[in-house]
Amino acid sequence: MILHLHAKPNARKNQLLPGPDGRWTVRLAAPPQDGKANTVLLAFLAEVFGVAKSSVQLLSGHTAPFKKIEISGLNEEAGASILAHYRA
After folding, report:
1. What global pTM score does this model have?
2. Are strands 2-8 and 24-27 parallel, antiparallel or unpaired?
């Protein structure tokens, strides 16, 4: 499964939020320095989708707010079901 996200570091807590345009925003409780926010992002998404941390990989956007994430071992239906929970 591939996700396109907008990451916002320095939040009070980690949150996955749907945007009005259909894009997903992830607020991260980590600073954007030295890859800390990316590390927290990958761990948070592993927790949200119930997969191992090693199954979540940052494909692009290492230093940009827009990220492309691959989640291995998760089919599109299961991923959509989990995301639907966050839309409600």
Report:
1. 0.93
2. parallel
